[in-house]
Amino acid sequence: MSLRVRIRLLALGATVAVLVLFSIPLWVLESRSASQDVEDSATETALGVADYLSAAGVSDDLTDYVARVNDREDASQVEVITADGTTYGPALPGADEQASATRGDADQDGDDSGDVDGDRDGPFLRQSQVDVDDVTGGRLVRVEVRTGGGPTVVLGYADDAQVRSTLAARLFPLGVAALLLLVVIGAAAELVARRLVTDLDRTADLADTIAAGDAVARVPESGPPEVRRVAHALNGLAGRIDELLAAERETAADLSHRLRTPLTALRLDVEALPEGESRSELEDHVNTLERTLTAIIHQARRSGREGTRVGCRPGPVVAESVAYWQPLIEDQDREVEVAVTPDLPEVHASVDDLRAAIDALVENCIAHTPDHTAIAVRAFETSSDSRRVVVEVRDQGPGFGADAVRRGRSDRGSTGLGLDIARRCARASGGELVVTREEPWTVVQLRLGLA
Fold first, then answer.
1. CA 277, chain centre distance (Å)
2. Tell me: the pLDDT tens digits for 362-389?
3. Residues 6+ apart with CB under 8 A from 3
4. How far apart are CA 192 and CA 440, in angstroms?
5. Distance (Å, rounded) from C-alpha 24 to C-alpha 28?
6. For residue range 321-334, what is the model confidence (pLDDT) as tens digits?
7. Which of 51, 85, 93, 445 is the most exposed, having the fewest neighbouring CB atoms within 10 Å of its CB?
8. 250: helix, coil or strand?
9. Count of domains in the chain?
């Protein structure tokens, strides 16, 4: 998971957590408020009908009045039950029990009192207190009115479905606002993550450039303070690496130059010897030592000539190496196959290193297989996702063990440095050295990274 995705998820997760913690008490509060509002609406409607009954009593117009009240969209459903059991309006849940209680009260009280609630306050208060009962699917509001025919009950119904509808209507704008908040937070997190990741990507690109061998590259020190510190430290590290490599090269060259003085003295001593076979051998040894010192100095200062990012075309190097070994191959009567794909891309290796690696592999084939053994040298580009240029040297010899690839190890009586030279060349280019056995061939592949 990338850093940008993690920042977005962190911001959105924190926002969702806050919204959830905020929405729970808000939902409880709004649920209670919606329930109370619907109940108050039912109570208000029931009291309105009760006021009408207090003023007009039970008359022929009551049916039309109750119907008009129930037809209003903003009013709760009401039902009127007279003392004799006659009902006006729709049948509400729990209304049957209320009708039975009303008839019981009428039989008990009679017509001589006019005191509904039993507090002996006479006919001046004709309505009882509001009574709310829980019934199936909601709550039933009950108001009793003393009329000429006896106690009449007005019932108002607070439906739970209406409570849920009211709650949904109130929470919908809040939900939309929460979604908009998430979108805004996500956009802000994406903006911040993009700016931060851009600076980190630039710093990572520098690290990759340095790892590829370009110690001169530098990254702009911009962005947040922490990213600027990393960029500054990486720039300093790149400069320090460049300084250390230059000092190492110069030290190797200086040591080699210092050896020229005793070498010159040795040459003078050898030339002072009388003519003879011993003097010729010593002169040959001195010449060999001088050539070795010159090669060391040349190698130590090669990066100054070639630059930090080396590269070459492998096709001409392979052809040149095979041409160099061709006389010996013909002298040993070997069959040789050379197959080089034209227009191969440039690989991340110098001409000298690649030539030394190919020479080491071809020399191993010649030195450690019998005469007349076939050899094949090929160069091609892989077609896989990780592009590589493969330089392959194969022979029909008996092969060798896997330990022979390690430096200083050999099962053929040699120094064991040939395969190690090839392996170091492959790894320095970003590739690898692979040894396989494909009967009757022993295959050694230099898989080189592209420049």
1. 75
2. 998 888 888 899 999 999 988 765 678 9
3. 193, 196, 197, 200
4. 61
5. 6
6. 999 999 999 999 99
7. 85
8. helix
9. 3
In DSSP notation, 54-102 reads: HHH-S-TTHHHHHHHHHH-TTS-EEEEE-TTS-EESPPPTTHHHHHHHH
Q: Determine the Cα–Cα distance for residues 140 and 154; give it in Å rounded to an integer.
A: 10
For residues 360 and 407, the answer to whether their CB atoms sit within 8 Å is no
Residue 170 belongs to a domain:
no
Question: What is the SS3 assignment for 392?
Answer: strand
CA distance 193 to 187: 10
Cβ-contact 173, 181 below 8 angstroms: no
Q: What are the CA-CA distances from residue 178 to residues 30, 51, 332 (Å)?
A: 16, 45, 85
Cα separation, 26 vs 278, in Å, equals: 106
**What is the C-alpha separation between 310 and 349, in angstroms, rounded?**
6
- Residue 370 structure tokens: 């019998």
Q: Containing domain of residue 286, as a range?
A: 225-306
Residue 368 CB partners (closer than 8 Å, separation 6+) = 397, 400, 412, 414
Which residue, 394, 384, 360, 357, is CA-closest to 450?
A: 384
| Spatial distance between the Cα atoms of 90 and 85, rounded to a whole number of angstroms | 14
Question: Residue 38 and residue 32: Cα distance in Å, rounded?
Answer: 10
Find out whether 390 and 446 touch, Cβ atoms under 8 Å.
Answer: yes
Q: Which two tokens stand for residue 344?
A: 């191969």
How far apart are the C-alpha atoms of 441 and 447, rounded to whole Å? 18
Six token digits for residue 305: 């000539």
d(CA 254, CA 162): 96
Q: Are residues 288 and 371 in the same domain?
A: no
- What region does 315 belong to: left with phi over 0, alpha with psi -120 to 50, or beta? alpha
The pLDDT tens digits of the residues spanning 102-141 come to 544 544 444 444 444 444 444 434 667 888 888 888 888 8
387 in Cβ contact with 347 (< 8 Å): no
Between 191 and 260, where is the model more confident? 191
Gyration radius of the chain's alpha carbons: 50
Looking at residue 160, which CATH number applies to its domain?
Answer: 3.30.450
Whether residue 204 contacts residue 172, with contact meaning beta carbons closer than 8 Å, is answered with no
For residues 333 and 407, give the distance between their C-alpha atoms in angstroms, rounded to a whole number: 31
